[in-house]
Amino acid sequence: MDIELFVNDLCPYCQRVVITARHLNIAHRATPINLASRPAWLSEVSPQSTVPALRADGVAIFDSSVINELFNDLAQGGMLPADPVDKGVCRAWINHSGQCQSLFTQCCLAQDAAAFEIARKGLIDTLNAFEQGPLQRGARGFDGADLSLVDVAMAPLFTRIAHLEGQVTLWPETGLERVRAWSDRLREKAVVRESVPEKFAPMFRMFLKNRAAGGHVATRMNVGAD
Ligand SMILES: N[C@@H](CCC(=O)N[C@@H](CS)C(=O)NCC(=O)O)C(=O)O
Question: For a designed S-S bond to 45, which of 21, 53, 91, 146 qualifies (C-beta 3.0 to 4.6 A apart)?
């Protein structure tokens, strides 16, 4: 199958599909998309011109969760549990991970300390749902020995939180121990580390500095820290 993948190096949803493609050795061509100046034709592949998107033998498919499941199906990758209920649980939490990512973005874009604290509390609450739910009961497909699509959905967020550490504190002083251990384990994996460009940390900070200029996070970041 001929797969052309449309991605951007700084996009967390793109990082998800890059991890899965690498993990499952999905042969593809990656076409970089400049988000600041997206080509008009992108809307033919993805109706809201979002990335990631792809063409599989010319057929357009978009959304990171759908693309990850496509890759998993093509490779029979076993990245979701076989049991329908366990699989449904994983899909539900992959959906929830989008809310975590979106609250992280709100933290990054917050214009002042008050807005930042509201977004940070929301992020902590959404992460705590993992802590008190599937991680506590050891649900299938969560932080196990094998890389799952839930792991992949969360790895880009964990990567970004780690890159802000020391400059902006997002983790609470106590709590979220299981989530933090999950983050540590995922970030150690070669497939996660190698799913972003070598200079990702300074690129990410520079991106935030420009995108959220004057905001709470941007003014606290040391762009030249790496
Ligand atoms: N739910 C989508 C979200 C994708 C998304 O929001 N991608 C961002 C880049 S990180 C995008 O293309 N945004 C369009 C924009 O900036 O207008 C997915 O999981 O693929």
Answer: 53
